[in-house]
Amino acid sequence: MVKQERAARTRRSLIHAAAEVFAEAGFVPASLGVISARAGVSNGALHFHFANKGMLAEAVEAEAVETVRRITEAAQARHENDPLQAVVDAMHALVGALAEDVVVRAGFELAGDIARRAASPLRQEWQRWVEDSLRRAERAGALAEGVSWKDAARVVVAVSVGLEVLGGEDASWLSRQSVTRIWDLLLPLLTDRPDLGAPVPSGSRARAVVPPRAQSRLTRPEQR
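-> structure tokens emitted (224 positions)
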């Protein structure tokens, strides 16, 4: 049991170290020697867990996929009957993870690395969930007339990827304020059904901290 726990800790350390190096240098320039040194283990220990750099990258992406899945499942659970608000909340949480979680950040950067020439399970996971959520929003009559779930999903996914790429150069793109402003612009185009309850651009958790009368005056929360 002790050996298994030690092996699991070593594996987690290697994945985290690999994520840091991939995020800093990219997949091709990343060195296994640098990764093992960052993790505080020998090259032999690294190769015991991962035969090559490609397998390390796959492990980073797999862990990032699990984080994205937890984000989307949590948003859907909170808003089972309001899929559009679930998408708003999930984008806020995803962008927060990009800003704060190096494994998620590295996972998305690996997804965009043409040198790997592989379909990204991470982007596929996010796109699949956004499409499913907006399809349900359309069935519920929550989308504006003339707006299809497919077009709405393409916009949301494109904006998400854009934030990820731009955030790599300028962290202000990954702020809550930045995401809120984007939803301030998008939501009036996507929905015109106030009778169903207007989605909150800053995320539904804002409802819990803003008094009902003040909420109507809220435009944007302070930047994190």
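The radius of gyration is 20 Å.
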